[in-house]
Amino acid sequence: MTDEESVKPASKRREATRARLLDAAHEVFAAMGMGAASVEEISERAGFTRGAFYSNFESKEDLFLALVRRLADTKLDHVTDHMRSVTPDADRATDELVDQLISMSIGSRIDPLLMSEIRTQALRDERLGAAYREWHAQLLGRVTALIEDLVRTHHVPLRVSAARAARILSSVVEDAATEATLERWSPEEASRYIDAEVQAAALAIIDR
């Protein structure tokens, strides 16, 4: 067996371990919130020891940021795949664009309370704050590219640049998630509210 062949199984095991920890974290965070969740609880739910946890993540916050990144990437990958399967229709170009902008919102995939918690932690922790800013910049970049593709495909002009539209929609999602958290709405109620707010913002930035 070559060195390269021996590395591949270890790499796959590490990926599988990280995936199980992320799945467990999603369940634990959703049930208990980020503050109440412990490394022990997450590790036990995943079937691993604390040692396995710290071999893959520096901290609970590091794990949560990885979870947010995975959920957001999965959502945007789905949007991208859907975009490629949609045939442009001039009669419903605006409606299609709005639907796609709504589908980009990660609010329907991540509990608003958890998003509020990670932003709060990012404000308090310099290292986590830097990682969060880097991830958010990458997210805005992907959303900007998707909006540019949507506008080009459906020939619907915007009142602002695609980059500005991405920032506006991101701010709307964050504000709506915060309000949903303060109102103590269920994840389903929060998701509906966030989608409605994104729809209103999307219609406002489309030059009809």
| CA-CA gap between termini | 63 Å
Number of contiguous helices? 9
User: Which geometry do the CA atoms define?
Assistant: globular
CATH architecture assignment name of the largest domain: Orthogonal Bundle
Taken as a percent bin, the fraction of beta residues is under 5%
The CATH class label of the largest domain is Mainly Alpha
The structure class reads mainly alpha
Task: Return the CATH topology of the largest domain.
Answer: Tetracycline Repressor, domain 2
Rg calc: 19 Å
Low-confidence stretches: 3-7
Sheet having the most strands: none
Rounded mean pLDDT is 83
In total, the number of domains comes to: 2
Order of helical and strand elements:
HHHHHHHHH
Question: Helical percent range?
Answer: over 70%
